[in-house]
């Protein structure tokens, strides 16, 4: 901050001389406006010095004009007495002039008072302007402080939002990692289920093949059973028709009975084979049902995992 230099006598003298050259009577207010600084007391003090110097200069000119040359000094002394008498007569006139001078001084003092009043008014105006400027500066400073507070609050809020965004981003990254991991696990499980599905399909095909074999065996067994039954019927008919002959032929009876017993044994054996085939067919059907249940359970589990994956 630059400190303003105190008003000097030289500055006041220069300003007064400039005003005089412009035909303007130097006053405290005029000099203050010309210089742009200085208190009333300081300007008045230096202006009085300038006026005294001006008066002294004017008196010197008058004295120079009133000086009598040396050659006329003797003659002048002769007139002194006459002049003295005349001067005494004119004393009263001088008193009047002195009164006029005093009146002029009074007017000058009044002028100075007027100048002081005008200067004070000017200072009041400048002070009011300065107070207005200070008030505006104070208001602007208050606004600036409020704005700074608001900006700091917004910056703090932005920092909190940035922190929350960073945490959200990190959390989202972790969620994506978990999603990728879960997706990989689900993909692996799906692949395993596909393998199991292929295995179940292969087992199902194998069971279907066994079922076809069983069906063929049953058909063959039924055919054999029908053939044996037919043979048994024929044998029974033959036995009935040959019964009388068997009575006559004892040896033939023994042969017939042997054949009959063999046929019965064969029939029982065929019946037993059919029962075993039926049991085997039932076991295969149970295995097929179990495989179908496992397949449905695996598909339901896969559907649940896919639904859970979509929610994630």
Describe the structure.
The chain has helices at residues 9-21, 28-35, 40-66, 73-78, 80-89, 91-241, 243-248, 250-311. The protein has 312 residues and is mostly helical. It has a domain at 182-311. It is rod-shaped, with a radius of gyration of 73 Å. 5% of the residues are buried. Mean pLDDT is 77; it is low at 94-99.
SSE diagram, text form:
Elements: H1 9-21, H2 28-35, H3 40-66, H4 73-78, H5 80-89, H6 91-241, H7 243-248, H8 250-311
Radius of gyration: 73 Å
Strand content: under 5%
Describe the largest sheet: none
User: What is the count of β-strands?
Assistant: 0
Structural class designation? mainly alpha
Report helical residue fraction.
over 70%
Q: Outline, from the CA principal axes?
A: rod-shaped
Overall mean pLDDT: 77
The stretches of 5 or more residues where confidence is low (pLDDT under 50) are: 94-99
Give, in order, the helices and strands.
HHHHHHHH
What is the number of helical segments per DSSP (H or I, 4+ residues)?
8
* Distance N to C terminus: 67 Å
Please give a quick description of this structure.
The chain has 312 residues and is mainly α. The chain is 91% helix and 0% strand.
Give structural attributes:
single chain, 312 residues, 0% strand
């Amino acid at each position: 901050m630059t400190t303003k230099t105190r008003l000097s006598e030289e500055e006041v003298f220069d300003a007064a001389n400039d005003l005089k050259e412009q035909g303007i009577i130097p006053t405290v207010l005029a000099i203050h406006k010309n210089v742009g600084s200085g208190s009333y007391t300081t300007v008045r003090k230096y202006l009085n010095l300038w006026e005294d110097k001006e008066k002294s200069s004017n008196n010197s000119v008058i004295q120079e004009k009133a000086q009598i040359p040396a050659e006329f000094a003797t003659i002048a002394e002769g007139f002194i007495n006459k002049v003295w008498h005349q001067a005494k007569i004119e004393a009263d006139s001088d008193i009047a002039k002195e009164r006029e001078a005093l009146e002029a001084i009074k007017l000058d003092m009044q002028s100075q008072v007027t100048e002081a009043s005008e200067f004070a008014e000017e200072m009041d105006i400048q002070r009011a302007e300065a107070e207005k400027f200070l008030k505006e500066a104070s208001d602007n400073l208050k606004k600036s402080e409020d704005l700074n507070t608001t900006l700091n609050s917004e910056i703090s809020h932005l920092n909190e939002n940035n922190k929350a965004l960073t945490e959200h981003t990190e959390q989202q990254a972790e969620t994506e990692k978990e999603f990728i991991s879960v997706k990989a696990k689900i993909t692996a499980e799906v692949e395993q289920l596909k393998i199991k599905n292929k295995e179940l399909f292969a087992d199902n095909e194998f069971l279907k093949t066994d079922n076809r074999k069983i069906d063929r065996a049953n058909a063959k067994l039924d055919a054999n059973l029908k053939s044996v039954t037919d043979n048994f019927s024929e044998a029974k008919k033959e036995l009935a028709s040959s019964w009388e002959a068997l009575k006559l032929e004892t040896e033939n009876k023994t042969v017939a009975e042997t054949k009959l017993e063999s046929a019965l044994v064969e029939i029982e054996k065929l019946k037993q084979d059919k029962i075993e085939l039926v049991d085997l067919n039932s076991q295969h059907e149970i295995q097929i049902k179990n495989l179908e249940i496992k397949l449905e359970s695996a598909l339901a589990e896969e559907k649940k995992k896919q639904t859970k994956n979509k929610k994630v």
